[in-house]
Design brief:
The protein is mainly alpha-helical. The protein is built from 14 helices and 3 strands. Strand 2 and strand 3 form a beta hairpin. Helix 9 packs antiparallel against helix 10.
């Protein structure tokens, strides 16, 4: 066999290619091994996560079983005749949570009470605030109702400007009932005015003493020195006094515009007593915020008027004066409101006017018509 055999040459070429590919194969093998290592690391992290989830699931299963046990205890306390068997605590398997499923369906029915259950519930206990409000409602006032000094302003110093919301949050922090704080005004720089009822002043001051704070005893909201706007410094003293009174009047009117309507008359009397607002402005706000009920208009033709008309004999020829005090007849309504009253009043529904009765048409008929109606109708023969 010669060395130049083509088969041997092919084998030699293949061996040369394999020899040249061996370094590339080593690189591929190293890369695959690195990928396998990363996949193994991913599997390890997944295994760790799965174990953590399993631990959390076990803790949740324990919490669920405890909650189910508490629900059964509550249902047994409400229904002493039924004695459900409590599940074993600490069981984390799915079988322990799935086994009481029918009982869980039975215990969920009290969670949606019927209307009869809601109505039969006892009323909630009265809180101290509700009890005090009911006591004030159904008891006479400690002071005379005609006294205009039942409300007062308590003036407090503040270190920096604050809004009403911030001030009320500070009051809430020292257990001051914000419902008893009727309004907050800002009459001067670093000074606030708290509108209170005199029955709450002692408790309010005791809460302030707990934080070593005392109100300003002598404060005049009408003092012109409280005007700190520089553009008013050059005004004469009389104008500044008038301006201070006007500013305080605006504050009082704003209080009357936003105060609770049931407190409006008493606070208005307090402001009028101190001559902070004129009576007509206070009355305008009261009429606007507390409209008086509209008086019911008298029916155009009442049952008394109808009875009076029926009692008049047919032979009476005396005409009824149009200026009498009797109500206007139903056939001549004076306004659209009276017509609507006629349509809905049971008197007009139960007793409609007779078509041949001339008296129901107009009580102010002429004597000639009355004479004609009073003559008996004879048969023509």
């Amino acid at each position: 066999m010669s060395s130049t055999d083509p088969a041997l040459a092919n084998i030699a070429n293949i061996l040369a290619k394999v020899t040249a590919f061996l370094p590339e194969q080593d690189a591929i093998n190293s890369e695959v091994s690195q990928q396998l290592i990363s996949v193994d690391q991913h599997f390890v992290s997944f295994d760790q996560r799965l174990s953590a989830y399993e631990t959390q699931f076990k803790s949740l299963a324990t919490v669920v079983t405890d909650l189910f046990h508490l629900v059964q205890q509550l249902s047994s306390s409400k229904n002493p005749e039924s004695h459900p068997i409590p599940p074993s605590k600490g069981s984390s398997s799915l079988s322990s949570t799935d086994s009481p499923a029918p009982k869980d369906a039975n215990t969920k029915s009290p969670a949606t009470p019927t209307w009869a259950d809601i109505v039969s519930r006892p009323p909630p206990p009265l809180t101290d605030r509700k009890r005090q409000a009911l006591h004030r409602t159904f008891n006479p006032n400690a002071t005379d109702s005609s006294d205009a000094k039942s409300y007062t302003f308590v003036y407090l110093p503040i270190s920096h400007p604050m809004t009403r919301t911030q001030i009320r949050s500070k009051f809430r922090a020292i257990s001051i009932d914000n419902l008893r704080v009727l309004d907050i005004i800002f009459p001067a720089r670093h000074t606030i005015g708290i509108l209170l009822h005199e029955a709450y002043i002692s408790e309010f001051q005791s809460k302030l003493r707990e934080i070593d704070t005392s109100p300003i005893t002598s404060f005049n909201p009408l003092d012109p020195t409280h005007i700190c706007d520089p553009k008013y410094h050059d005004l004469p003293q009389e104008d500044r006094t008038r301006l201070a009174r006007s500013l305080h009047q605006d504050r009082c009117l704003r209080t009357l515009s936003f105060i609770r309507p049931n407190l409006l008359p008493g606070i208005a009397k307090y402001f009028i007593h101190h001559k902070w607002i004129p009576p007509h402005l206070a009355q305008d706000i009261i009429n606007k915020r507390i409209p008086r009920p509209v008086k019911r208009r008298p029916i155009s033709s009442s049952s008394v008027a109808q009875a009076f008309e029926e009692s008049v004999p047919s032979s009476d020829t005396t005409p009824i004066s149009s200026s009498s005090n009797l109500p206007t007849p139903a056939s001549v309504p004076s306004s659209t409101t009276q017509t609507q009253d006629m349509d809905t009043d049971p008197v007009f529904i139960s007793k409609p006017p007779k078509p041949n009765d001339s008296r129901s048409l107009s009580p102010a008929s002429s004597p000639r018509k009355l004479r004609k109606s009073s003559k008996p109708r004879g048969s023509k023969s």
